[in-house]
Amino acid sequence: MDIAIGRGKTARRAYGIDEIALVPGTRTLDPSLAETVWEIGGIKRNIPIIASAMDGVVDVRMAVLLSELGALGVLNLEGLQTRYENPQPQLDRIAAVGKEEFVGLMQQLYAEPVQAALIERRIQEIKQAGAIAAVSLTPAGR
Q1: How far is CA 47 from the centre of its chain?
Q2: In the chain, where are the structural domains located?
Q3: What are the beta bridge partners of residue 51?
Q4: pTM
Q5: Facing residues of 50 across strands?
Q6: How many CA atoms lie within 13 A of 44 on its CB side?
Q7: Residues facing residue 38 across a β-bridge
């Protein structure tokens, strides 16, 4: 349903994750009959999950674990993992900050430049663990 937002302009209703409920359906499927394997670019995965390229979701360890499970974790090459040699203290600061200080802290942390050597190192850490190194970079970050 479209919502009028001005003269000749409309918008569609969007839903947040807290507004969505998953409910079991009336039909069931024997798991042995389900095929979850997928392939992209010649890379075959067993679990249909691609973990988001966000600092709070995927780091090197998570990318490796997801790969071992048959899923895919995507590392954000413009995140804290490639700005700081050891990003854990910065992640701890984010987790501990209040709502009022959050924006300022994020601006401060992301003001640190991305380091090309850390990009290479993070990718190598994933590959050396035998995992698939999937990464994300925006055009502005090139």
Answers
A1: 16
A2: 30-141
A3: 73
A4: 0.75
A5: 72
A6: 4
A7: 45
With CA atoms as reference, report the closest residue to 38 among 87, 71, 83. 71
Share in percent of the chain as helix, strand, coil (round to 5): 40, 20, 40
Question: Minimal CA–CA distance to 90: which of 123, 55, 51, 62?
Answer: 55
Residue with tokens 């854990």, as numbered in its chain: 88
Cβ count near 35 (within 10 Å):
7
Task: Give CA–CA dist 20/85, Å, rounded.
Answer: 38
Q: Which residues contact 134 (CB under 8 A, 6 or more apart)?
A: 50, 63, 72, 73, 74, 75
Cα-to-chain-centroid distance, residue 38: 19
Tens digit of pLDDT for each residue in 78-121?
Answer: 999 999 999 999 999 999 999 999 999 999 999 999 999 999 99
